Amino acid sequence: MTRVLFVCTGNICRSPTAEGVFLHMIHRAGLHQFIQVDSAGTHGYHVGDRPDPRSLAVAARRAYDLSRLRARRLRAEDYGRFDHLLAMDRGHLSIMLRDSPPEHRDKIRLFMDFAPQLEHREVPDPYYGDNSGFELVLDLVEAAAHGLLQRVHADLGSAARKD
Fold first, then answer.
1. What mean pLDDT is predicted for residues 118-137?
2. Residue among 83, 113, 125, 155 flagged as catalytic
3. What is the rounded distance in angstroms from the CA atom of residue 142 to the CA atom of residue 17?
4. What is the 8-class DSSP label of residue 42?
5. CATH topology of domain 2-158
6. What does the alpha-carbon distance between residue 9 and residue 43 come to, in Å, rounded to a whole number?
7. CA-CA distances (angstroms) from residue 139 to 25, 77, 95, 112, 163?
8. What are the tens digits of pLDDT across the range 9-30?
9. Cα separation of 94 and 26, whole Å?
10. CB 151: neighbour CB atoms within 10 A?
């Protein structure tokens, strides 16, 4: 089982969008029994809340359902539990690297590392902007999620060959 955690600030815009998109992709690829996905925030501002209504609407227009997701805060045990801890921006990356036990730091990276073909290295926070920011987030998330799926799928294949 491969476990992936997406992390943003409050877990209501970027990271739940990434969680929902990646869940959709792994289901379509028939890999949902091999990959566990979750999301969290570096701050507890919105614990228990649904994703931002704008995130829900933009995602729904592209057939992604985020309605069952609820915000939670990143926990100390997440560092050991997940194989990939993916930060939406450098601020989250810094917090996660600071708070992580040293033995888990190699699992933490920017989510956009999985979309090297794009100029964006971070997924920008759309919270204080208009719907166009949420559309951009979804565009970036789809590209990086595709790259992440290729990586995880290859890793699963390598693990199966070792058995």
1. 96
2. 125
3. 9
4. S
5. Rossmann fold (3.40.50)
6. 6
7. 14, 31, 25, 11, 37
8. 999 999 999 999 999 999 999 9
9. 28
10. 14
Beta partners for 5? 38, 85
Segment 54-97, tens digit of pLDDT: 999 999 999 999 999 999 999 999 999 999 999 999 999 999 99
Q: Could you tell me the residue ranges of all domains in the chain?
A: 2-158
Catalytic residue among 13, 14, 52, 54: 14
Which member of 8, 38, 52, 78 is catalytic? Answer: 8
> 84 near 2, Cβ under 8 Å?
yes
Cβ-contact 2, 33 below 8 angstroms: no
Query: Which residues touch 104 (CB under 8 Å, ≥6 apart)?
Result: 79, 80, 85
Known catalytic residue: 14?
A: yes
Q: Has 125 been annotated as catalytic?
A: yes
Catalytic status, residue 99: no
Q: Which two tokens stand for residue 70?
A: 């609820």
